[in-house]
């Protein structure tokens, strides 16, 4: 077997055997297959596609390339949650304490943001003192005591994915369902939880541009998870507009705390509830989402979910009282009267990036208090001169570029238009069939 023949076979659209995929991933991991051949493999896979058997084997080989987290000493149902990435997506900060308050154990390994999408680890690091790396024994005892913890994903989990992802990033081969699914699932399987709940985003701010593409990706994700013996579900949600009103690290932590007390923006509150309902059904505590929803509302309104968050921050060394107040540097105002029919996620993310909320290169240092706070959500009527967004940064001179970018964010029109649903549906395994179940209601009513 040699790499040239494998590349030739994939180029011709043929199906690779398990041995050929193993040869590629193992050889690449050992440094025996150079980046140029790995890049050619990725492009051939992107253009010709991978069958589900090939995708499952690619995932398995990337999983085998590194360590696995051993959670066996943690008793109870453990659930991992993952989002395919978005703008203003702080759901993990709400969902993990909420589920932990309901008795589901959430050992969450998260990443940093790069480009326009934020990362949970960067958000948590805006809390002074918060440790995103802990020894494994301490993490395990925190899971037993508090029921959840969030750490930065170790480089030792699925290292082959890390190396391949770096090549995908520079060879225009990121946004392919099989490559995305194997990348995500190799890391999720290595993280060792009993169940995997995936928030698959669609829309302008996401990899998958349409809900149909998100369903396709979901089916592959669930097939890989269930085939590996893990209860796996996806919830498909819109990333056309930013989620909630805050985009930027400390701003998002504050908004997540509001949501844990039931006072967050409507879309964030709704998405967190729906994800948590799915999580409780997966854990086996509830058969029906409606009954799970009632229990979750009680945990929010009694303060139990918020208390969990406070215990978690304290356990990981964070000091909420020491968080600095964000510095307001500018406001963006409505140029005319109208209804806010769209708030485009991408320009809002780029404006936050320009203010210092993210990294343009891996070396950039994040300004934890930088970002954009939307003052309106889609569907609201505004008058010319009303403030649509407040801009925060440690460096006032950055506001000029951000204000210019925001000009393309808000679509103001005379008549209200129908918007895409926040939650499109979910994909899961029912009696050994992977099914798509559409959502019953949406934010349009
Ligand atoms: N997130 C991942 O971890 N991998 C991808 O390929 C895309 C999103």
CATH homologous group name of the largest domain: Nucleoside phosphorylase/phosphoribosyltransferase catalytic domain
Count the E strands: 14
Could you give the distance between the termini? 58 Å
Low confidence ranges: none
CATH topology of the largest domain: Pyrimidine Nucleoside Phosphorylase, Chain A, domain 2
Short description:
By secondary structure, the protein is an alpha+beta fold. The protein has helices at residues 3-11, 18-29, 35-48, 52-64, 91-101, 120-124, 136-145, 159-170, 177-190, 211-227, 249-260, 266-283, 289-301, 304-315, 345-355, 399-406, and strands at 79-83, 106-110, 148-152, 195-202, 231-238, 246-247, 328-333, 338-343, 371-374, 381-382, 387-392, 410-413, 423-430, 433-438. It folds into three domains: 3-49, Transferase, Pyrimidine Nucleoside Phosphorylase, Chain C (Transferase, Pyrimidine Nucleoside Phosphorylase, Chain A, domain 3, Up-down Bundle), CATH 1.20.970.10; 79-320 and 421-436, Nucleoside phosphorylase/phosphoribosyltransferase catalytic domain (Pyrimidine Nucleoside Phosphorylase, Chain A, domain 2), CATH 3.40.1030.10; 325-413, Pyrimidine nucleoside phosphorylase-like, C-terminal domain (Aldehyde Oxidoreductase, domain 3, Alpha-Beta Complex).
């Amino acid at each position: 077997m040699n790499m040239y023949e494998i590349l030739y076979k994939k180029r011709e659209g043929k199906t690779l055997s398990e041995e050929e995929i193993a040869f590629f991933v193992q050889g690449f991991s050992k440094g025996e297959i150079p980046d140029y051949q790995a890049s050619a493999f990725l492009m051939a896979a992107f253009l010709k596609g991978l069958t589900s058997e090939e995708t499952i084997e690619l995932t398995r080989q990337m999983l085998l390339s590194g360590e696995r987290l051993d959670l066996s000493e943690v008793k109870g149902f453990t659930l991992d949650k993952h989002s395919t990435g978005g703008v203003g997506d702080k759901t993990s900060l709400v969902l993990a304490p909420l589920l932990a308050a309901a008795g589901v154990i959430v050992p969450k390994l998260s990443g940093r943001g790069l480009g326009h999408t934020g990362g949970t680890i960067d958000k948590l690091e805006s809390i002074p003192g918060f440790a995103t790396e802990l020894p494994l024994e301490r993490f395990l005892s925190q899971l037993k005591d508090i029921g959840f913890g969030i750490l930065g994903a170790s480089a030792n989990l699925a290292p082959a994915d890390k190396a391949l992802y770096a090549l995908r990033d520079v060879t225009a081969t990121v946004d392919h369902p099989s490559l995305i699914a194997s990348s995500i699932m190799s890391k999720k399987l290595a993280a060792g939880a009993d169940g995997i709940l995936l928030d698959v985003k669609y829309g302008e701010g996401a990899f998958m541009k349409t809900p149909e593409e998100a369903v396709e990706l979901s089916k592959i994700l669930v097939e890989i998870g269930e085939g590996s013996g893990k209860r796996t579900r996806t919830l498909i949600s819109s990333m056309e507009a930013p989620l909630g009103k805050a985009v930027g690290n400390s701003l998002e932590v504050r908004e997540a705390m509001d949501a844990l007390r039931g006072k967050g923006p409507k879309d964030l509150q709704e998405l967190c509830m729906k994800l948590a309902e799915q999580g409780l059904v997966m854990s086996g505590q509830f058969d029906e989402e409606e009954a799970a929803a009632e229990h979750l509302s009680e945990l929010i309104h009694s303060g139990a979910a918020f208390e969990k968050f406070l215990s978690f921050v304290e356990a990981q060394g964070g000091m909420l009282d020491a968080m600095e107040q964000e510095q307001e540097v500018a406001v963006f105002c409505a140029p005319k009267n109208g209804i806010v029919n769209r708030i485009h996620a991408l320009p809002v993310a780029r404006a936050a990036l320009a203010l210092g909320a993210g990294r343009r290169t891996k070396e950039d240092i994040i300004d934890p208090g930088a970002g954009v706070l939307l003052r309106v959500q889609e569907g609201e009527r505004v008058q010319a001169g009303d403030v649509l967004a407040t801009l925060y940064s440690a460096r006032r001179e950055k506001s000029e570029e951000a204000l210019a970018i925001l000009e393309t964010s808000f679509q103001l029109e005379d008549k209200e238009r129908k918007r895409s649903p926040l939650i499109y549906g979910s994909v899961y395994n029912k009696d050994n069939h992977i099914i798509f179940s559409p959502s019953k209601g949406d934010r349009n009513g």
